[in-house]
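Researcher: We're reviewing a set of sequences before deciding which ones to prioritize for further study. For each one, I'd like a predicted 3D structure that I can look through quickly. This is Transcriptional regulatory protein TcrA. If possible, include the structure in token form so it fits the rest of the review sheet.
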Amino acid sequence: MRILLVEDDALLAATVAQLLREAGYAVDVEGDAGSALVTFEIEPEDLVVLDVRLPGMPGGGIELCRRIRESAADVPILMLTAIGARATIVQCLDAGADDYLVKPFHVEELLARIRALLRRAPTALPPRLTVGSLTLDPGRRVVERRGRVIALSPKEFSVLDYLMRHPDAVVTSSDLIDHAWDRNYEGYSNVVPTYIRYLRRKLSMPGEADPIVTHRGAGYSVTSETG
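Model: Here's the predicted structure for Transcriptional regulatory protein TcrA, in token form for your review sheet.
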């Protein structure tokens, strides 16, 4: 899942982005409303978290919220505000926000609200994904193979999550990077094969076939036949 975070406080943005990444989300960060709108229009995100007071656009975050809602009726929007006044909250909701959170906030509450919004979204994942012998619970972030719970890192979980959302389909490395890494990722080119190797090591079971199939020159897949 990819989140667009729009916050002009650079320190707060970096802190929240890191926490979201540790929770397994890919995060794109913008510091002003104008840049955020351009980013969203290039490639809509799964969820938007934005501050009420933003530079770069008359009306700030509330106007940005309104424009995002006009272009994408279904994307969940969570607004952050340092002003808990009823009038401000009403403005946020009337502009198209689905929820709001008053600063300062606890990280656990932010993550819980994000999970709740994603559950209600039209593109929300089913409660459990099952492909062959693999079962993945997006809400609880638990993976099992034949009843055995497998501990995965947030990034490993995101990669497997995307593969299992597309069973029997060949998923390219570019698709996986788009889903599990930030849009401006400029890391090393072998990052996807590296994480596929990590997953294979953790998912392996004696006497069982490898649940991840490599299609040379094309990508990877998780299929029921390999389960």
